[in-house]
Amino acid sequence: MKLVSWNVNGIRAVVKKDFFKSVEQLKPGIMCLQETKAQDEQVEEALRGLDGYNIYSNSAEKKGYSGTAVLSASEPLGVTKGIANDAHDKEGRVLTLEYDGFFLVNVYVPNSGSDLKRLGYRQEWDRDFFAWLKKLEEKKPVIACGDFNVAHKEIDLARPKPNYNKSAGFMQEEIDGMDRYTTGGFIDTFRHFYPGKRDVYSWWSYRAGARGKNVGWRIDYFLASEKLIPGIQKAEIHNEIPGSDHCPVSVEI
Fold this sequence. Notes:
253 residues; alpha+beta; Deoxyribonuclease I, Chain A; 6-stranded mixed beta sheet
């Protein structure tokens, strides 16, 4: 089964840009979407006509902001919105689906902001989200996917030196947050298969033709409990698929 994650930067916008064709091309068993920028009923309306999937969404209280959704060909055992933490659960950033063999957690991690005003909050988020994943892992293994809004290593962005400790997404505090996952039992599946692969990114700024020049960042991930790694056969970044400033990423299990 293929699992796909994609920050669509607006579900109502992306469906006007051959989104259904992209789904047909990717053929996901489960597809996790971030930054839907829509309320639950708007997500459902936008995806009307997409056959073969159960649709679940978690919308922010603030309209047109944040939001996550999951398209699942099979019905999960259960669906949970948020991480049971009132400080974090008003922005629709997490959807957890339980399946027979694992929990799938779809996440849109808060951006620290161009002026870094949310960097402190981001550190709280990283600690609390990690705790959520570990709590789930007590019951069964976890796959966490989505836009983590951080390039983990220098290899994960085109221009590390001018961005390190200056730009949201490559602050040491954010890197420390990703370290917490990868040293705490969760494997970066893409790097598991391609530890030294360069120039492969999942997000590009809309400015200065960054995507055409491949001046990008790898900030979209599939993290998996160590126990699941033997069953993961492939990890891919689908940078040929347009429609958003992010491209889809996937694993096959």
